[in-house]
Specification:
- The chain is α/β, with parallel strands linked by helices and 353 residues long.
- Helix content is 22%, strand content 29%.
- The chain has 7 helices and 21 strands.
- The strands form 5 sheets. Strands 1, 2, 5, 6, 7, 8 and 20 form a 7-stranded mixed sheet that branches.
- β3 and β4 form a beta hairpin.
- The structure holds flavin-adenine dinucleotide (FAD).
- Flavin-adenine dinucleotide binds next to α1, β2, α2, β9 and α6.
């Protein structure tokens, strides 16, 4: 996958011509179409990687209805789209959810993310799909305050476990893999799941059994009911309840949580945009929402005849980019072909012919 420029979280707003919320297939193609219009874009996604549903829900499944591409997997489509936007080098802000969007007196929009990034945008493209993909959290009193320090949700690697007593919470392949990997670096590893049954491939399940037999992973079948902290607020132990109704205390330094990642519409519904059945109402000539300067494309929008298909989202992104180019420049924008336009060749960084 191409590696578009990344930018760190900032506290002062970054001025932007366009911000695309959502790096699913439609958000990625939106960046491409904006690039053709000469509009550089910032790209934000709650996931730590590009691709939205294609990457998160079906990376290895085949797609047969992308025009000109008889078959490709979800992952392959994302890789191709990432290559296609590479000439426009969007600034990407991954692993952060856009939590606020406020119109400003000068017509721009102030966006804030959960990582503290602030963007001051002249136009906004909401490509939020079925919602932000965010990890399922543990719901017990007081645990939120420990997120990011002693409680980590879906870390890409279990490196934080080095030298610590770690509890890995979850029952799927990610949890099993994390527990196995943590045994190389952690002081102790406990795998906590509500049942002593794990969903993972045969090789990982076999390795898990070997590590259990060797006493290097302890499995606890129970549910978390509370936490125990010291007076400074440091997490010392989890309180857990097993199937027999026995409550016990499980000491730890670090909790790694793998309870799955699922989409939540989240704050999009609070941005004052016309909405019907959790989808943003758009004008099909421009894919503008009810607020001038804000567009909605892909699965997040609704209009008569809407079909939640990737190719429909590509069309929407194309018309939205034309509309935004006219909105931002205040002038009509003529159609140009990528085949023949020297201006588009220049923007794409390809040789003139
Ligand atoms: C199993 C399956 C198979 C499918 N097969 C096909 C197929 O064969 N052909 C086809 O055309 N379609 C198919 N689809 C549908 C297709 O995947 C969707 O239409 C497409 O992914 C929509 O793209 P999108 O970019 O609009 O949204 P998404 O892919 O949902 O991406 C939206 C992104 O926005 C992010 N986001 C949302 N809110 C925020 C926020 N506030 N801040 C930051 N980020 C945010 C999310 O984390 C997500 O990554 C399939 C879907 C599924 C589930």
């Amino acid at each position: 996958m191409a590696d578009p420029a990344s930018s760190a979280a900032t506290s002062s707003p970054i001025a932007a011509d366009a911000v695309v919320i959502g790096a699913g297939p439609v958000g990625l193609f939106q960046v491409f179409q904006l690039g053709l219009q000469g509009i550089p874009a910032h790209l934000v996604d709650a996931l730590p990687y590009l691709g939205g549903q294609c990457a998160q829900l079906y990376p290895d499944k085949p797609i047969y209805d992308i025009p000109g591409t008889p078959v490709c997997t979800g992952r392959e489509l994302v890789d191709l789209l990432a290559r296609q936007i590479a000439p426009f080098a969007p600034a990407t802000h991954l692993g952060q959810q856009v939590s606020a969007l406020q119109p400003q007196a000068d017509g721009r929009f102030l966006l804030a993310t959960t990582a503290g990034t602030q963007l001051l945008a002249r136009s906004v493209f909401i490509a939020a799909g079925v919602g932000a993909f965010v990890p399922r959290t543990v719901k017990v009193d007081g645990i939120e305050a420990l997120a990011g320090s002693q409680v980590l949700y879906h870390p890409a690697t279990p490196q934080a476990a080095a030298g610590r007593n770690v509890i890995v919470h979850g029952g799927d392949e990610e949890a099993v893999r994390a527990a196995i990997e943590a045994t190389d670096i952690a002081r102790s590893v406990t795998l906590l799941h509500r049942r002593d049954v794990f969903q993972a491939d045969a090789a990982d399940l076999q390795r898990l059994q070997q590590l259990r037999d060797a006493g290097r992973i302890r499995v606890v079948a129970a549910q978390i009911t509370g936490i125990e902290t010291d007076p400074s607020g440091r997490l010392n132990a989890l309180r857990v309840l097993d199937a027999q109704g026995q409550e016990q205390s499980e000491p730890l330094d670090l909790l790694l949580v793998y309870l799955g990642i699922s989409p939540r519409l989240g704050p999009v519904a609070d941005w004052g945009l016309a909405i019907e059945r959790k989808q943003l109402v758009v004008d099909t000539a421009s894919f503008a929402t009810s607020v001038p300067g804000i567009y909605a494309v892909g699965d997040i929008n609704t209009y008569p005849g809407k079909r939640k298909l990737i190719l429909c989202g590509f069309h929407e992104a194309t018309l939205a980019a034309f509309a935004a180019a006219e909105y931002l420049s205040g002038a009509a924008v003529a159609l140009q072909y990528t085949t023949t336009s020297s201006k588009l060749h220049e923007r794409l960084g390809v040789e003139h012919t």
